[in-house]
Amino acid sequence: MRDLIPLVQLTADVVILTVRQELEVLLVRRGKPPFEGMLAIPGGYMEPGENLWQTAVRELQEETSLDGMAHHLELVGIYTDPDRDPRGQVASGAWVAMIPDPPVARPGGDAAATQWLPVEQALESALAFDHRVILHDAVERARRSLDQSTAAVSFCRKEFTVSELRRVYETVWGGKLDPGNFHRKVTRIEGFIERTGRTTTRDGGRPAALYTAGARKWLPPSIPRPEMSA
Amino acid sequence: MRDLIPLVQLTADVVILTVRQELEVLLVRRGKPPFEGMLAIPGGYMEPGENLWQTAVRELQEETSLDGMAHHLELVGIYTDPDRDPRGQVASGAWVAMIPDPPVARPGGDAAATQWLPVEQALESALAFDHRVILHDAVERARRSLDQSTAAVSFCRKEFTVSELRRVYETVWGGKLDPGNFHRKVTRIEGFIERTGRTTTRDGGRPAALYTAGARKWLPPSIPRPEMSA
DNA sequence: GCAAAAGTGTTGAAGCTACACCCATGA
DNA sequence: TCATGGGTGTAGCTTCAACACTTTTGC
């Protein structure tokens, strides 16, 4: 009976997204079989003593030289179809990371090359394993997070302007937001973003106030919670 | 090198929640070691040919006699600490299910007994494995889903009244909502709930219109998406 | 000065909260 | 008839969308 229980290996795949002109994803070209030469989502095996979240943090760090721990890493799903990997039973936890300013991509491990690709384009490409599904789910999740949480700030550098934040929303959703109204909206949601007191003119025009991420994690719901009482 | 990659067994744990007077969770008392005699979240091993979601569906079905497929099953997390199970490396995917009307709990498998417990009370109890953490995360997730998605209807039977839906929110959040305003709110969100044309007097008073769940999955965000264009 | 981006003011429409009030049933 | 919960009306307030307009920089 106990022998019938599948023994599996675990991998963490990390869908690394950033916002430039469009929403882009970091992919690696596989340097060895299976799917040698194909594009894939960066990931790797869980190592002894690790849990899978730590694996994801490590992968993010290896691919981007970013401190994975400090960045937004959100679980997307767990992919466990028995035949998803030709090498045998390999289950994968998929995370999505939203990072600012694409840093230089760093090839390493079994990746012959890493590259940024617009997600539109990546979703039309053939990817290794079930990575097209994973990428699709991850992008869905990222869009949803923009709706509901303060995750958009993860796409901005540590200090950012309201306009830079607005451009994140505009890019991920496609469309334009009224700058004035957006400014009032986000500055009025308590704990969303906090002024640093500094300003910048890096976007041209009148100096813009710089902000950092606030403590709030979730945007206010559309059905407001009642006052706690019970 | 390849031998260093841990081989693990996979289990699916299903946190089954329902709303009665309070938010309650279905727990099983373990009938064999490890943690024999302790309360635990129902779950079981992934079987050959299954993926882990199917395992979760099967577990829900075994514990509640409900068609697991038809019910709301939401991934909560993946629990992979190397020492979370004394039997060895066992990783667990945790789901949360929100079901109506507690049906009769059905002991089966390695569960000597199953019982409903108020969540507050369960969170104060010692549970097997890391199940206190899992339960905590699952309840958080359920609360969040009420904010952001239409998941509240999963706590209602197939046909329900607006008041029954309101009581779900009131119970999960603790507090009172204005009946009139709540009624207008949910009936005006398109696709949230749909009238059946039938009525009921099961809650007393004037007959109440019966509704079913609509097609909408997510409630409107507080920062409205711009019109798509790009 | 001119262009560009930041941020504020304004106005009419829409939505929300609180609460009164009527409705339709069972007892 | 009364009690109970269902549902609508309404007044006052807040928020919102659209867009004009002022501010502060770089060139």
From TrEMBL, chains A, B:
Stretches assigned to the Nudix hydrolase domain: 9-139
Pfam family, one: NUDIX
Entry-linked CDD domains: NUDIX_NadM_like
InterPro entries: NUDIX_hydrolase-like_dom_sf, NUDIX_hydrolase_dom, WH-like_DNA-bd_sf, WH_DNA-bd_sf, WHD_NrtR
Protein name per UniProt: NUDIX hydrolase
Keywords: Hydrolase
A GO term, aspect molecular function: hydrolase activity
Gene3D superfamilies xrefs: Nucleoside Triphosphate Pyrophosphohydrolase (3.90.79.10), Winged helix-like DNA-binding domain superfamily/Winged helix DNA-binding domain (1.10.10.10)
